[in-house]
Structure formats: C-alpha cells, structure tokens
Specification:
The chain is 39% helix and 25% strand.
Length: 106
C-alpha cells in the first residue's frame, strides 16, 4: 500500500517544523523505510496495517520525546488487492497518458 503521512506538531516555540521533520526523516532512513519526502507529507510503501501502526508509534515517540504535547496526524492510504503499489508508478501512468513518460529517461 502507498501511505501519505502528514504530522503537525502543535504548540512548538516556532512556526518552523523542519527540525522535527528532520528527526523523523533520520528515523525513516535508519529503519529502512521506502519513502519520498514532499513539501507537506512523507509518502511510504507500507506492507500492511501492522507496519503502518508501528511507523506511527515511532513517529509519536520521537515527537513526544522532543517535548511536543500534541500532534495532529493526517494519514491517506491507497491500498489495492489486485496488484502491488510502488512509489512513482501512479505518476508514470499519468505521464504515459500525457505522452510525456519515457522509460529510458529518469
């Protein structure tokens, strides 16, 4: 499944959240998650709901460990049972329909 996660630490001393997001990205890398960082979310390839639950628990542990008392989380799940979903495949499909995608160009 493809999962988009947006976390918003509430009650920080600054409107900038990048220091908190950087700590999460470090954990994502250390834990070996396949993910893509965007301006407003991180998008993951997740195998099942147990893995998603574990990831969310790790996110909360890090943020609460940083002294954050409240976290707003938005999770979007794209799950298909007929085929495996991979990051960037939906983009490739749209670009193919537009005639703009070439497999020999990255």
């Amino acid at each position: 499944m493809i999962v988009s996660i947006t976390v918003i630490p509430v009650g920080t001393s600054s409107p900038s959240l990048s220091q908190y997001i950087a700590k999460l990205i470090k954990m994502f890398r250390e834990e070996g998650y396949t993910f893509k960082l965007t301006d407003t979310a991180s998008i993951f390839e997740i195998s099942d709901f147990e893995e998603l639950s574990s990831l969310l628990s790790k996110i909360y542990d890090i943020l609460y460990g940083e002294g954050i008392d409240r976290v707003v989380t938005v999770v979007t799940i794209d799950e298909r049972r007929d085929k495996e979903l991979k990051l960037d495949k939906k983009i490739e499909s749209v670009l193919l329909h537009l005639g703009e995608y070439r497999k020999d160009v990255s």
